[in-house]
Design goal:
heterodimer, A: alpha+beta, five-stranded antiparallel β-sheet, flat, B: Beta-Lactamase, Immunoglobulin-like, 7 helices, 23 strands, globular, protein transport (chain B)
Chain lengths: 1115, 418
């Protein structure tokens, strides 16, 4: 049965070709069934229920059905025809019958006819023309979907004659009111271009027009068309660059991929390299975003030496970052490659987590992603080191995945992790998958050469493998050992001997050849064995592989030169065998060697140097990653995967030395406004496409903008215009959340207007442009008081928003903060501008002046700062000294009133940073007069300080009334030690010896850092720099609040927000040297906790550890 | 971009082809067959193959190869991701993505492919839109269609494609408004010989089934969102809300969809719910070996571990196995050398054990390595990371929906080395 039907199939196909051949001559010919009645009956009997049996009569049947008046019959016929097309069978002779139905009223019939037309129109161009008028009519249909589908089919019919019609249709559709039709127009551009490349110029015009489109629907498709038709016309992108960046989040996922790839290329031609100035902290100061040009220039001259990232460059990086969270692997990969190729090296790391996530996906996705990671991991190990374990191999992985993972593991190997890796490799070597086991041996070899510490271990391990049962494993080991020995042959005679013994058993040619080469190369080290090996191999010479034969010849030559007495005959024998070998390679080699080594009268000068030639020091082979040379391809591309340039691959250009004019990207206000009034005015559909994310977009801007007034006002006004444009939409379904954000944005609008001093604008579209323009003109001298206060105001506004307090009375928090600000100006002046946000955060929640509220501050502020830091791009590498969270501090006695003759003094550590000098710890001394007489001229004298320590005395107290007390502040530089500072407290008449010994916790200044940075820093401070202890924690101390409070009380640490509830992190730096001090408290089960301190200052670290222990364990 | 698509079954028959541009001959697939032959195992067929004039990018799903023909440079993941989307759509429409299902519904398949790609560039890939354009087949509809001659092509034109929310269709109406969330967590782990954890992490997804009328705007919040380390979102989720407030805010698609997938931060220790005691040994020169495996519960938070299945790829030298299981049943496939032991539920009182003799091919050398054990299990009503949904709020619609959250923990790639 089965066979019968396949045979029939063949018959059918033959008859088919005959038919079409006939038709070629005259396609009006009606077809007659060629098969006899018997054959037909046979066919029917053979397969009564399949579709095959009808085939011979089918065409006639189908024709009749197509011509019938009933739709159901037509539909049936069309379905069968589509079935034929799907199977790849020829149904072209039905063309005339089918094409008639193109105007059918039934949508499904129509669709199927379209399917048919697209498939066969190219072959039957004349007849296809019959259908054109139908499409032309449909192009004018009031329904946008019908217009779109007509354009789709029209452009898919590959008939050169209709090129002008297509061109016209595309032009018309490109200014259609419906974005969906415009999207289809963009697709049609590519189709027309592939059909007739001569239309390029005209098509570029259409592309230019569509690139200006603001609809997210169109963006992806038109960029695709751009890439296909005119990828070199970078100039078309300039004006649309910022728009594309801003739309990106809302574009459908496939469009995102295309746009990101295009923008990567664009950015590489327009911006200067962020890598050169990598050591310069890449702090992006958005204040200069919209500076006027003159100022920009001024600044440029000033900052010529340092690198500042172009704001547009930053815009791209910022807007693509959220897409790392896409569910679409292609989008994630596209963003990853963008960061790889464009971001400063310090920021590229954020993509690794997302890439590792993709490894959970299908094997195909894994394959591509792993390849890209392999390339990345060669250049920047650090990016993937934290995820080392994610690349561990499972026995169920397909071999190609295993090998890629192994490749990455090898790339990531370093001194720190090599021992774990080697243990893991040991498991792999035993794998049943021998190809993988062999690859593992290669990997071990690579680790051994790269990391000298483990070379010997690896070598020993490999030698053990030589006794493995599996030949492939042994052979691979031999090859790898050969390479390893070459790097350090001095003391490995034993191994060579061992390998010589193996020669009897190994049959794999490469391995045999390797052993022979080794013995030849080091024949002087194994003088006894070498001739014997030659004797054995000479015996088996004729049966060896070519590769082995060549090495036998080499071995004999080398032995002849070093030990001709024993091996002369053998060598001659081998050379004779080689002379008559079948392979010309071997005959050649034999001739060459004979001339060189065997002295005869004709031999030239060369033979004198034969020994030098053969036994020269050979450079050791480099064991390199096969992915080494892939990095010149753009990541994520087909070319990268194939490691060869694919058709249509566009080279990523090098960064320009000098950035091209950035002003080309400035959008001309008037022109574009005019351009868009036409489209914006009419269809309501336009707006919502952008509206959906608008609210969230704004949120991002508030939070990412570390006081970026320029971009903020920009986005706000954008928001505003959306808001206004779609009020009817929102009011319909205004949810509570939306309402609240609405009011937020209103209030923010106000601030925006205030800061930019914009006049009241009514036209929604204009606001954006104007705000942009105005803020551009604004001076950015952020040091000026008015400016900074206004920017702070606006950010405080946004803060109260994120706290989801309604802004109904915005005056209140603002005035509050500003008063507080004044209090803090002393401190603020010292800290960089960027820090404003942090300071204000803390202010908002914890009034510094009242120590009682400290606990709440500790709970709320870290999480918020963390949120902000997460958003703040530039914070990653900056660690700031935070403002103080003052803690009720313990008071120490300096001088008892009994010993001070009525003068009493106490001191405490005020934890105010750097009042005197950066390295000094501020100490507040309260002096009290308990006598009934005035005490005059209290001052310090007779300082006895250990070397290095310095002290800033307080100003002498002129006089102290009886019973009065006064507080003075002094600064002591303890040099990061707990040594005592001794001095004399003097009055007019007396001298009292006093001393101050600082608790270790006071030698610190708290710093703010994100959890990520904390971990990064911690990662660098391991080993010697880490001290840890396990402590019992009193049950009442196990809440976050209490722990923070207690730790802060004991030491001047900054809280680092933590993602886990059971881990608490604190960071500080030492006052004198500024070394980091990282404290981690991890709560474990059964009320114990692990206390870890990482610091360079190990002494202080251990003292601090000792001090912190009782803090948590005491009830 | 994507020029043509061929669907090929396991025996190497091309059973469907579709061209979006000029026709590419089937012979291009010969390069694919060549690579397939070289790879031996279907899993090892390289996804990207270069031929003189084209590039072939393929995926393997449900015993079908989807081979796409590419002519110019394109991000390979773009194509791979799209092909998987196609397979997902078939799965969604026909309940399975098999050769027979595709052959039976060849017209719908063609219509779908036509809508999903235009000139090789993805057009409509959201299932909500596609379902409006082309109705999925049901038995009832096919009966009705055959009688009335109506079609499965939607006669009302879909609005979703044009709306601001492309993933949701307009005019959804339900009498019972329901929203269900399944929090499914999978433990990926490698346990070494001695029972210590080499690598473990928790990967989770939240699958949703939302049947809500109108245009509901949902926000879902967690008790402990900080557990989520790395998250990927369905496009419907407002990313910025998550960034700032750690709340999932979205207008959901209609029907089933995957809301987020996430990874739990790697610092957290992963509780491993089962332990395995194993004794597998092959004797030298005796063509037999011993096999003894016991599975027991561990750190399961008071929940029962159920649905336990163990699969072992035995070495090639194994001829047969004669074992006895104290619980469940086992099968050994002598061709693929796969041992499957379906254990079921674990009761701590009586631990399931599988013990017996392994027969080796006589004369074959003793296998180097013991096989690793792949364990599957399920724990109902538990998210092993401790993730908890706090609340679900709905805005924009007046009615009160029925809400439900379910937690399941499963074994992901859970491997015990022996």
């Amino acid at each position: 049965m089965e066979q019968n039907s396949t045979m029939l199939g063949k018959i059918v196909e033959v008859s088919c070709t005959i038919k079409s051949a006939l038709k070629g001559r005259n396609f009006e010919v009606t077809l007659k069934p060629y098969l006899t009645v018997e054959e037909k009956r046979l066919a029917a009997a053979a397969d009564p229920c399949g579709c095959m049996e009808q085939y011979f009569t089918l065409n006639e049947d189908l024709k009749q059905m197509l011509e019938s008046s009933k739709d159901s019959a037509k539909l049936d016929a069309m379905k069968r025809i589509v079935g034929m097309i799907a199977k790849g069978k020829n149904a072209s002779e039905l063309f005339p019958a089918v094409v008639k139905n193109v105007a059918s009223k039934n949508i499904e019939i129509k669709k199927l006819v379209y399917v048919y037309l697209m498939r066969y129109a190219e072959e039957q161009q004349d007849l296809a023309l019959l259908s054109i008028s139908t499409f032309q009519r449909a192009l004018k249909d009031p329904n946008q979907l019908i217009r779109a589908s007509a354009l789709r089919v029209l452009s898919s019919i590959r008939v050169p004659i209709i090129v002008p019609i297509m061109m016209l249709a595309i032009k018309e559709a490109s200014s259609d009111l419906s974005p969906y039709v415009r999207k289809n127009a963009a697709h049609a551009i590519q189709k027309l271009y592939s059909l007739d490349p001569e239309q390029k110029e005209m098509l570029i015009e259409v592309i230019e027009k569509l690139l200006k489109d603001r609809s997210t629907l169109v963006a992806g498709s038109v960029v695709m068309a751009f890439e296909e038709v005119c990828p070199d016309r970078i100039d078309l992108i300039h004006k649309n660059y910022r728009k594309l960046c801003n739309l990106l989040v809302d574009v459908e996922e496939w469009g995102q991929v295309v746009i990101i790839h295009m923008l990567t290329r664009y950015a590489r031609t327009q911006f200067i390299s962020p890598w050169k100035a990598d050591e310069v902290v890449d702090e992006y100061n958005e204040n200069n975003f919209y500076e006027s040009d003159e100022e920009q220039k001024e600044k440029d001259q000033k900052l010529k030496s340092t690198y500042t990232m172009d704001p547009d460059h930053r815009l791209l990086l910022r807007n693509t970052k959220p897409l790392l969270q896409s569910r679409n692997a292609a989008v994630v990969m596209a963003v990853a490659q963008l960061y790889w190729h464009l971001a400063p090296k310090s920021e590229a790391g954020i993509v690794s987590k997302s890439l590792v996530r993709l490894l959970r996906s299908n094997r195909e996705v894994q394959y591509i992603v792993l390849q890209n990671i392999a390339t990345m991991s060669i250049q920047r190990k650090g990016m993937f080191e934290p995820f080392l374990k994610s690349f561990y191999v499972r026995s169920t992985d397909p071999t190609m995945i295993k090998i890629l993972k192994l490749e990455i593991l090898t790339n990531l190997a370093n001194e720190a992790n090599i021992s774990t890796l080697l243990r893991e490799f040991q498991t792999y070597v035993k794998s049943q998958d021998k190809q993988f086991a062999a690859a593992t041996i290669q990997a071990i070899g690579r680790c051994a050469t790269n990391i000298t510490e483990v070379t010997d271990t690896c070598l020993n391990g490999l030698v053990c493998l030589l006794s493995n049962r599996d030949e492939i494993v042994v052979a691979e080991s031999v090859v790898v050992i050969k390479k390893l020995l070459q790097t350090q042959p001095a003391h490995h005679g034993e191994i060579i001997k061992h390998m010589a013994k193996l020669l009897d058993n190994i049959t794999v040619p490469v391995a045999r050849a390797s052993i022979l080469w080794l013995i030849g190369e080091y024949c002087e080290r194994v003088p006894k064995i070498a001739p014997d090996v030659l004797r054995k191999t000479a015996k088996s010479f004729t049966n060896e592989d070519d590769l082995v034969k060549l090495q036998i010849l080499n071995l004999s030559a080398k032995l002849y030169l070093t030990n001709s007495k024993q091996t002369k005959l053998l060598t001659q024998y081998v050379l004779n065998l080689g002379k008559y070998d079948q392979s010309y390679d071997i005959r050649d080699r034999t001739r060459f060697i004979r001339q060189l080594i065997v002295p005869n009268e004709k031999s030239g000068a060369l033979s004198k140097y034969a020994k030098k030639i053969f036994l020269a020091q050979k450079p050791a082979p480099l064991l390199e990653s096969p992915f080494k040379d892939r990095d010149h391809f753009q990541l994520g591309t087909l070319s990268h995967t194939l490691n060869s340039q694919a058709i249509g691959y566009l080279e990523l250009s090098d960064w320009p030395e000098v950035a091209p004019d950035a002003s080309v990207r400035n959008v001309d206000v008037v022109e574009s406004a005019k351009e868009w009034t036409g489209i914006l005015g009419k269809p309501k559909k336009e707006k919502p496409t952008e509206k959906f994310y608008s609210e969230s977009e704004e949120e991002e801007d508030e939070s990412t903008s570390t006081s970026s007034s320029g971009s903020e006002s920009d986005s706000e006004s954008e928001k505003e215009d959306k808001e206004e444009g779609s009020t009817d939409e929102t009011s319909g379904s205004s949810s509570p959340s939306e309402e609240s954000t609405d009011s937020d944005s209103d209030s923010k609008e106000n601030t925006a207007k205030k800061t930019s001093r914009a006049a009241n604008e009514s036209d929604s579209e204009d606001i954006k442009k104007k705000a942009e323009g105005i803020s551009k003109k604004r001076s950015t001298s952020s040091s000026s008081d008015t400016e900074s206060s206004s920017s702070e105001e606006s950010s405080s506004g946004s803060k109260s928003e994120s706290d989801s307090k309604s802004d109904s009375e915005p005056g209140k928090p603002r005035s509050a903060t500003s008063t507080k600000k004044e209090e803090k100006t002393v401190q603020d002046r010292k800290t960089p501008n960027k820090q404003d946000v942090f300071l204000l955060d803390l202010d908002d929640f914890c009034p510094v002046t009242t120590p009682v509220t400290v606990p709440t501050a500790a709970v709320l502020s870290p999480s918020l700062t963390a949120d902000l830091e997460g958003l703040n791009l530039s914070s990653s590498s900056v660690i700031d000294v935070t403002s103080q969270v003052s803690v009720p501090t313990k008071t120490y006695e300096l001088l008892h009133r009994m010993s001070g003759k009525g003068l009493a003094a106490h001191y405490h550590f005020s934890r105010q940073p750097g009042l005197f000098c950066d390295h000094m710890v501020p100490v507040q001394v309260t002096v009290t007069n308990t006598t009934d007489q005035k005490i005059d001229n209290i001052h310090i004298e007779g300082k006895k300080l250990p070397p290095g320590m310095r002290m800033h005395e307080f100003n002498p107290i002129e006089c102290l009334e009886p019973g009065g007390s006064t507080t003075v502040t002094m600064g002591i530089d303890f040099c990061d030690s707990t040594q005592t500072a001794s001095f004399q407290l003097c009055t007019k008449d007396d001298h009292f010896n006093v001393s101050i010994q600082p608790p270790v916790g006071e030698l610190l200044l708290p710093v703010t850092m994100s959890e990520k940075d904390f971990k990064k820093e911690q990662g660098m401070l391991t080993g010697m720099n880490e001290t840890s202890a396990t402590i019992a924690v009193a049950p009442q101390n196990s809440t976050r609040l209490v722990i923070i409070e207690r730790v802060m009380k004991a030491a001047n640490l900054g809280v680092v927000s933590s993602g886990q509830d059971n881990i608490h992190r604190f960071a500080a730096k030492t006052v004198h040297s500024g070394s980091l001090m990282l404290v981690t408290v991890e709560l474990k089960e059964s009320s114990t906790a692990q206390l870890v301190i990482n610091t360079e200052k190990t002494v202080i670290g251990s003292v601090l550890l000792r001090e912190l222990k009782p803090v948590l364990s005491q009830g | 971009m994507i020029h043509s698509l061929f669907l090929i079954n396991c025996s190497g028959d091309i059973f469907l082809e579709k061209h979006w541009n000029s026709v590419v001959s089937q012979s291009v697939c010969d390069y694919f067959f060549e690579a397939q032959e070289k790879a031996i195992d279907v899993e090892n067929v390289p996804p990207v193959i270069s031929t003189p004039h084209h590039y072939l990018i393929s995926i393997y799903r449900d015993k079908i190869f989807f081979v796409s023909v590419i002519q110019t440079e394109v991000p390979p993941l773009f194509v791979i991701e799209f092909l998987h989307r196609v397979a997902d759509t078939f799965q969604d429409y026909f309940g399975e993505c098999s050769e027979t299902a595709i052959k039976d519904n060849v017209v719908i398949v063609y219509e779908l492919l036509e809508e999903m790609l235009d000139n090789g560039f993805p057009l409509a890939t959201e299932s909500n839109i596609l379902k409006e354009l082309i109705k999925p087949p049901t038995i009832l509809r096919s009966v009705v269609n055959s009688i009335t001659g109506s079609s499965n092509v939607g006669d009302t034109l879909p609005t979703g494609q044009l709306s601001n929310i492309p993933w949701r269709r307009a005019g959804v109406k339900y009498t019972n408004n329901e929203a269900y969330f399944d929090v499914i967590e999978e433990i990926d782990a490698i346990i070494d010989k001695s029972g210590s954890t080499v690598f473990a992490e928790i990967q989770g997804v939240i699958d949703s089934c939302i049947k809500l009328s109108g245009m509901p705007d949902l926000s879902l919040s967690f008790m402990n969102p900080r557990l989520l380390d790395d998250v990927s979102f369905h496009p419907c989720i407002r990313f910025k809300r998550w960034e700032s407030e750690r709340v999932l805010s979205f207008i959901p698609p209609d029907g089933n969809f995957r809301l987020i997938s996430y990874r739990v931060s790697s610092q957290n220790l992963v509780a491993i719910p089962v332990y395995v005691k194993h004794m597998i040994s092959f004797k030298e020169n005796s063509s037999s070996g011993r096999f003894d495996v016991t599975i027991g519960p561990k750190q399961n938070m008071g929940k029962t571990v159920e649905g336990v299945v163990m699969t072992v790829h035995m070495p090639k030298a194994v001829l047969n196995m004669s074992l006895t299981a104290t619980q469940g049943s086992y099968t050994f496939d002598p061709v693929t050398k796969v041992l499957t032991w379906d254990v079921g539920k674990i009761t701590p009182q009586k631990l399931p054990n599988l013990k017996g003799i392994v027969n080796l091919q006589s004369g074959a050398p003793k296998p180097e390595e013991n096989p690793s054990l792949n364990i599957q299990f399920k724990i109902q009503q538990l998210a092993i990371s401790g993730l908890k949904v706090n609340r679900l709020d709905m805005y924009g619609e007046k009615y009160k929906p029925f809400k439900g959250v379910k937690y399941i923990t499963k074994a992901g790639k859970f491997q015990v080395r022996t």
